[in-house]
Amino acid sequence: xxxxxxxxxxxxxxxxxxxxxxxxxxxxxxxxxxxxxxxxxxxxxxxxxxxxxxxxxxxxxxxxxxxxxxxxxxxxxxxxxxxxx
Length: 85
Ligand SMILES: [Zn+2]
Description:
alpha+beta
């Protein structure tokens, strides 16, 4: 039996599907505000498919950030994902 090579996977908070880390966007919430992950604190992941689904996204973000400022969260998210680094 060949040993299965196991790549680390992470779960998308919106659809709960697992994918390789490099297929996901890593984000964090700080005091109810969305931010890109800076290496500190808790983070979560979103898959590229969910990034295209605003309805699903806004729900997941509000739940994850415990915030109801949907427009804030969505605007910040767009800022982060269009800022290609
Ligand atoms: Zn997803």
